[in-house]
Prior knowledge:
mainly alpha; 1 helix
Amino acid sequence: xxxxKQDCSDLVSVYVGIxxxxxxxxxxxxxxxxxxxxNSHANAFIARLMLGIEKLKRDSQLLEQLLEELKADxxxxxxxxxxxxxxxxxxxxxxxLKPFFSDVPGEPVVVLRGHFLKRIQYDQDG
Length: 126
């Protein structure tokens, strides 16, 4: 019976060893899968960044072209404006004074202002 007990304990230890090996193998496979997922994510992130860089380069080139076109258009606009600017400078002139009540005949008129009398003569010559 001692031999049987020995064989059973050997079988149990072998079985425990097999279970331990399986658990370690599964843990190693999970770590490898996790590392592979991280690597795939990093590769996708790098590809996305490189695509963004290419788009920025293209946009930068387009902006440079637009800036050159605007500079060229601005130069043409300035030349056209200089050619078309036949506007004379503004000169402020005093308004000419018309005779006061030009439709009134030239007769003497007496006006009462307060307690003073004034005599006003309208000139017809203007």
